[in-house]
Design a protein that fits this description.
5-stranded parallel β-sheet, FAD/NAD(P)-binding domain, 427 residues, alpha/beta, 3 domains, 24 strands
């Protein structure tokens, strides 16, 4: 029997397991999933824990409960991927030979990459919210916060859920006003980017929100180190920012097994074909989710769209047929803005976020690049969708794998490009 091995049982790996059991001949193929952790976290929920909207129990479930019964699930750490031998060695010494390997090992914060960040003051005056430990500790600290300088600092790109730092700043503004502390608090948003977000159209809107809410935006800030004793972050060009409470989004990197296996770049992300999701170095290795080096967002919606494409390409690979170059970088994301409102953006490699309605043209019910209450309720409903549809690889009505321009108000130039792409080739 041939072996298809999936490394990682987070969102991407779990979705792939659930897709593939429906498509593959299990009489000829054995599907195995390996992951060292027992708990599956709904990571978008980490954003809400510091503000008391969610608790730890709201974002945790057992990983094994989402793995199909016909899939072998091994809860064990991974020692090394031996790509040339088509094998993986686990930490206990077990060797698994594979015919096809899917790497879904994700990414994680590495606060030690920033000098001084984890020294004096870490988890006392400086926190992350990208881990369950950081989010819950920050929730306790905010309960006793009485004002001062609150800095939200994005260290470097890429990161998981690139809008989350902005969401945190906007939610902090709302939270502090409700507690009567906003007038006593200077909110600072510090970023290595020149604009508020990676997409210009979105940056114009969200940058305006920062201004409107009196959140000071410090751009082009390349951090050199953090001085926890003095409560300062210091850039390479000498700029210093004081804080009383620091919310840090540290460097994000791929799993350390990628470094040990010699498969990644400097940040342990794997060079991946941007449209097929096949490894650039090994034809029987495919990569999905945050483990890739793709110029798409590292977000759950992206992994969902990638899983649709990769499932078909795995089947084509088995049949010896050319792979489809169908992944277009599609991403969509609700962006919390506070006070029970949110934005929604939908974009891909080539098209920026624009205004319009989603998923139904003219009907919505969601508005693109516009702040509405129904967008907020969409964000809150996504937790149920995540557990009950996405993780189980069930279809989401009206949501297409490739980004559609239907319902979007495209600038003239982009309309012309889209029209040209739909015209037949000249004979």
């Amino acid at each position: 029997m041939k072996q298809l091995l999936i490394l990682g049982a987070g969102a991407a790996g779990t979705m792939m397991a659930n897709h593939l059991v429906k498509k593959m001949d299990l009489g000829q193929w054995k599907i195995t999933v390996v992951d060292q952790h027992k708990t599956h976290y709904y990571q978008p929920g980490f954003l809400f824990i510091p503000f008391g909207t969610y608790s730890k129990k709201d974002v945790c479930k057992d990983k094994a409960g989402f793995i199909p019964k016909t899939v072998e699930y091994i809860q064990q750490g991974i020692d090394v991927i031996k790509a040339e031998d088509h094998a993986v060695t686990l930490e206990g010494g077990q060797r698994i030979d594979y015919d096809i390997l899917i790497i879904a090992t994700g990414s994680k914060i590495v606060p030690d990459e920033i000098e001084g960040l984890t020294d004096e003051g870490w988890m006392k005056d400086a926190f992350d919210f990208y881990t369950i430990e950081g989010a819950t500790a920050l929730a306790e600290r905010l309960k006793t916060f009485e004002g001062g300088k609150l800095a939200v600092h994005l260290c470097e790109m890429p990161i998981k859920c690139p809008v989350a730092p902005l969401e945190f700043a906007l939610l902090a503004d709302s939270y502090l006003r409700k507690k009567g502390l906003r007038d006593k608090t200077e909110l600072i948003y510090v970023s290595p980017l020149s604009e508020a977000f990676t997409k210009h159209n979105c940056s114009v809107v969200l940058g305006g929100m920062l201004t409107e809410k009196d959140i000071h935006f410090v751009s082009d800030y390349a951090v050199e180190r953090v001085d926890g004793a003095a409560k300062k972050i210091i850039s390479f060009d000498g700029r210093e920012i004081d804080y009383d409470l620091l919310v840090s989004i540290p460097t994000n990197m791929g799993d350390s097994v990628i470094e040990r296996s010699g498969l990644g770049d400097d940040l342990n992300f794997i060079p991946t074909h941007k449209h097929t999701l096949q490894s650039k170095a090994h034809e029987n290795i495919f990569v999905i989710g945050d483990a890739t080096d793709l110029p798409s967002s590292k977000a759950g919606s992206v992994a969902h769209f990638q899983a649709d494409v990769l499932t078909e390409n795995i089947q084509l690979f088995i049949e010896g047929k050319p792979l489809k170059e169908d992944f277009d970088g599609h991403a969509n994301c609700f962006i919390e803005s506070g006070d029970g409102k949110a934005f929604l953006i939908d974009f891909n490699y080539d098209l920026e976020p624009v205004q319009g309605t989603f998923p139904l043209p003219g009907l919505g019910p969601f508005s693109l690049l516009k702040e509405t209450r129904i967008n907020h309720w969409g964000k809150m409903a996504f937790r149920w969708i995540y557990w009950n549809l996405l993780m189980k690889a069930r279809p989401m009505p009206g949501i297409t794998t490739q980004m559609t321009t239907v319902g979007k108000r495209l600038p003239k130039k982009e309309k012309e490009v889209c029209l040209q792409e739909t015209l037949p080739e000249p004979q």
